[in-house]
Amino acid sequence: MRLLLSLSLVLSMSGSEIERAQQVARGRDSERQQFHRRYVFPLTDAAVTQIEIITEFRQLVLTTEEHIFRGDWLFSRSVKSGEEAIASSRGLVKIRAMVRFNPLNTYITPPPYLLAITPNATGAPVALETQVASQFSTPFKGRGGKTVSSLVGAALEADVASLQLGQATRIVAVILDGKELARTTVEFGKLD
User: Fold this and answer.
1) Is residue 3 part of a domain?
2) What is the pLDDT confidence band of residue 108, given thresholds at 50, 70 and 90?
């Protein structure tokens, strides 16, 4: 089965776009991996390991894959189910970043990292309202036999209106205390 690929960010999910997203989710594993690879930007930074983009279209692909994995094949062929599944993310693009801390860190909570995006292909990134979720190690026995876990990283997440992004190329960055730690260029016009 060949996947039908769009060449631009889907700004409004129509019934045909929902069907296309569900078709991608029903594709071969290698085709789905190739589809998702375009949305994940691995970084060489020691702390910021990757930036990921989740468009409304990709969110539906991920949700449909999850339903198929659980054996709910009917979901993958129902436009109505697809519409309901993406209702809360209509018109939004989610930007995520993964931050890894040095194993010797002494953080109790993550530092105030922010995701940022440029208004165009150049210029300084503008900070976005960012949610930061702590990531902890697997519990282990600490001093005195007490079970503990340590803060090993953080997941950053921000939502941006797809209409604000449009089909433009933009720089997505991770900022801490006004200093840019890592960045990548995202061509939103080449994402679904």
Assistant:
1) no
2) confident
